[in-house]
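User: tokens in, sequence out, please.
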């Protein structure tokens, strides 16, 4: 469920990263995913699946935004920036 939700929503977050400020999306997605993954240790089994799906949305939001920021960091060698920063 976690993989499917992250994979299905990543193109949507990629579109948003192209239209909005990717720096803000990176920060919010890291906090979102970290908090929800941290809450999984305190949850019961019934809530665990929901928390994992919601945490996967943070991962899906992070990757396209971070990829766009990697090309900004080093505009001369974008391939090297992607390989080091990812």
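Assistant: Sequence out:
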């Amino acid at each position: 469920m976690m993989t499917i939700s992250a994979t299905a929503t990543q193109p949507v977050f990629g579109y948003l990263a192209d239209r909005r400020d990717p720096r803000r999306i990176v920060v919010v997605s890291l906090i979102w995913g970290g908090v929800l993954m941290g809450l999984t240790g305190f949850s019961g089994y019934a809530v665990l699946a929901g928390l994992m799906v919601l945490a996967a949305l943070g991962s899906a939001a992070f990757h396209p935004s971070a990829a766009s920021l990697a090309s900004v960091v080093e505009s001369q060698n974008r391939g090297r920036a992607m390989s080091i920063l990812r």
